[in-house]
Write a structure and sequence with these properties.
- The longest helix has 12 residues.
- This protein has one domain: Translation Initiation Factor IF3, CATH 3.30.110.
- It is 31% helix and 32% strand.
- The chain contains two helices and four strands.
- It is of the alpha+beta class.
């Protein structure tokens, strides 16, 4: 279960990742952030960002309507 949720629907690259960076800085280590986005590049962007920063990407999925959901441990 997510401790915080971030709605990035309607935002285009790089806005969702910039919002994630800002939100993660406000969270406690170990908290879970859930992000919803519909930018086509979001799945690859969030995976690359998690690898680059050492964050744990717990989930990254896409539904039939193209909405992406990701969960990252702060």
């Amino acid at each position: 279960m997510a401790d915080e949720k971030l709605n990035c629907l309607g935002m285009k690259c790089p806005q969702p990742i910039l919002k994630v960076v800002a939100k993660i800085k406000q969270m406690n280590p170990g908290d879970m952030l859930e992000i919803e986005a519909d930018c086509p590049s979001f799945p690859s962007d969030i995976k690359a960002w998690a690898e680059k920063t050492g964050r744990i990407l717990m989930l990254c999925s896409t539904d039939a309507d193209g909405k992406h959901t990701a969960q990252i441990q702060a």
